[in-house]
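#lab-general

N.A. 3:47 PM
ok so I finally got the sequence cleaned up, no stray characters, all 137 residues accounted for. can someone with queue access submit it? mine expired

B.Y. 3:52 PM
send it over

N.A. 3:53 PM
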Amino acid sequence: MEEETLGVRDPIAEREQARIQLFEKNGITEEEVSKWKKAYGNIGWVSFVFPGIDYAVVFVYRSLTRKDWKETLRPKLQQFADEDLGKEIFCSYMLLHPKEAKEPEFWETGPAFIPETLETIIMDVSGSQPLTAPSRV
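B.Y. 4:20 PM
back already:
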């Protein structure tokens, strides 16, 4: 509190407050976030601009575990030859919000490359990309 009276900004607190406000606009409560964290541990979010919506649309996702990949998602995706459909199914499985993303119709009306972008982000945070370049010791 004392820092606020001295005019010192707290960029971390400001960013968190902005996230909370954006989540509220998207119908996401802090209670929901707590439940997701408890159920899935590592969750993340990203937002996109959609035409006709006055605020950024938030997508909340969970990271992919090896077990999920081997037992559920990979077998499911192997059933489909359509790569675009596979990306939509992948996103539908991994997304916690928006709930409508679980429905195939959701992907038909949104911006064209949202599934590709989300798949890349989720794969990256799930270990498909290293944090550092391979190095020799």
